[in-house]
Amino acid sequence: MSKELYRTCPESGLQFHKQAEWLMRAHAVVAVVILLIGGIAALLVTLTRWPAIHLLPADRFYQLLTTHGVNMLIFWMITFEIAILYFCSSTLLKVRLATPKLAWGGLALMVVGIIINNLAVANGDASVMMTSYVPMPANPNFYLGLILFAVGALVGCFVFLGTLVIAKDEKTYEGSIPLVTFGALTACIIAVFTIASGAIVLVPTWLWSLGYINNIDAAMYRIVWWALGHSSQQINVAAHVAVWYAIAAIVFGARPLSEKVSRTAFFLYIAFLQLASAHHLLVDPGLSAEWKIFNTSYAMYLAVLASMVHGLTVPGSIEVAQRAKGYTNGLFQWLRKAPWGNPIFSGMFISLIGFGFLGGISGVVMGTEQINIIIHNTIYVPGHFHATVVIGSTLAFMSLTYFLIPTLFRKQVMFPGMAKLQPYFFGLGMSVFALAMMGAGTLGVERRHWDMAFTNAPLDFAYPASAFTMMGIMGVAGTVAIVGGAMYILVTVGSVFFGKPVGSESNYGFTTTRVLRADPIVVPEGGHEAAGKWGFAAPGTFLLAIFFLVTFVLYYAVNWKYLASVWPMS
Amino acid sequence: MSAIQPPAEIVWWKQPLDKVEGTWISIALVWSLIMFFMMPFWHIYGKQNLSSEAYRTTPQAYMAKTQAMVDQYTIRTETDAKLPVVRPPPGSDVYLLGRLWQWWPLLELEKGQTYRLHISSMDWQHGFSLQPVNINTQILPGYEMVLTITPDTSGEQTIICNEFCGIGHHNMLGKIYVTEGGQ
Fold first, then answer.
1. Contact indicator for A160, A147 with CB cutoff of 8 Å
2. Whole-prediction pTM value?
3. How much is the ipTM here?
4. Which residues does chain A have with pLDDT short of 50?
5. Interface with B, mutate which of A70, A260, A322 (most B CBs under 10 A)
6. Which in A219, A374, A410, B139 has the greatest CB count within 10 A?
7. Phi, psi (5° rounding) for residue A407?
8. DSSP 8-state code for residue A273
9. DSSP per position, A125-171
10. Minimal Cα distance from B32: which residue of A?
11. Residue A453's closest chain B neighbor by CA?
């Protein structure tokens, strides 16, 4: 290994391929710039839906809601994920990145796509929301920008796959790829499916917007578009679960409870997650009940089962690692003694809990064929996906950033006090925000709607006062979360562009970056079970899982009861 | 070896399952199956199931059917725009259309009676959201959806559009009045 090609991080022991390193940095920087744009739009949208403020006029509101949706759900997520793919292949497998020049070309395409799409929306004739449902027309550049971005992302996926091939060929590791890399591979496979679906639906739609195609069927568009729209969120799920495992390893040196279970769970994602297009079509005309039931449940909830498995094995592996270090008192000493002041951990743990309790439960409930009748297109829906995508994915990526600033960017974390508080502002603000949206949605408040008071409508309707209260709570909590987002951007941009370089080990800031140089976990006498209870290596986690299940069952039952109260229909 | 390193055991798939994992997987699998079978169960025993009855149509053909119903059963008009309020007979086919930006016509139904409610869009996609009873469906142009509904509460219900349909989206309302039987 020549010195020019690689550098080894003195603190973590990670080995970076220099060309890959610059690519990861560039993707992360682009991603954070998009997060800033999406975040400004988020603030303005939140302040408009907060009834007491109702900031923007209607046309601006719909325009900025489009900006917010596309930038956050597609551009921010996928750009950051390409950086994760490069990290999980090149860095974790200690191998050179395949075709770095092509990878730069991919990033260039993505950036051009982002600019073209955003300019189309800024121009004012593409306020069609992220979903751009036909036959509502948008400026053709709206679709073109998305297509170019997707091609660039596809290049990134193939660079990742090529890097895996090189590592295998050059034998840079023994046996199987690490679990985290396996998770990234899962994300990559889902991404290829997603981008292919995107091409199938967006290329004809672009041609339609230019006048070359006469008609796009609205029902067909929805089925194929959601194979892009929902599956792209499944890339995020696979990626952020991989990040959870990575952070458990980085902070605690945790090893998976068993490789077999965790890998099988990832495999279930590959096999079943793509069926989720159906979640958006449960109250569409003409689809059969059999089709809906099979697809909406990912066959038989097998992908949900996979997430419930990760939800146990990630904290379970942390518990085992903590117990091996001697935190064996009671059921939860391991959790109390966890480094709650370290944002790498605190953000990851809030992400895990928020994703499971808020995002996961609400997603399964509203994805139940019949229950969707009382939830479809209400503001419950964005409540759900802010819990999955924002608390789940975005917060996990933010947590990982605090590890990447010293190791990848070789900069000290600026404003460490602010960094410590950031996950709490962002995660807890976003949790209350999502809950308030779900509450308002249960009362029937609609999503993507400028005026819940219907001031200028020719007919009257008044929501109950409690719905307005919920939307007020949403406004306050959303603002808190946006402050948390601004803290993240301040810390990352400050550190990366203006931070002091890391010199000695002592100025890495957070104390847990000795990833590959840390002492291995010593198995306690009598095995890990001996350090646990009831013959379980992770009894505290098991109890948390049971608590989760009870919450899930109760909430599921309540929603069936609510459904039973609406008008009979068949 | 942690999760960011290759597994320590080359043959990791032969490692025995951890007890806490095995227990949880069993419980979670049972719950997954319960949730799965709950949906067909509700089709058999529940009363709120969306029909899959739908037809291809065109805006012109659907408009003609709706206009015929309006001509036959209008009982009064409302607002300055003289929106027709239609009271079709119980058991009949009722036509509702969504267009930029109104639900047309207004309907008056009788509590406890069953109707075949047809809905379609004349232009873009719309969302049929009946409040406060809270029934939500997606309405597409070119497709005529048929819901067999039985209003079991009387009073005024408002149809809100909950699929974004352009700049007048937030003003797109309609009404279903439900009267007590025999009026």
1. no
2. 0.96
3. 0.96
4. 1-2
5. A260
6. B139
7. -85, -45
8. G
9. S--STTT--TTS---HHHHHHHHHHHHHHHHHHHHHHHHHHHHHHTT
10. A301
11. B170
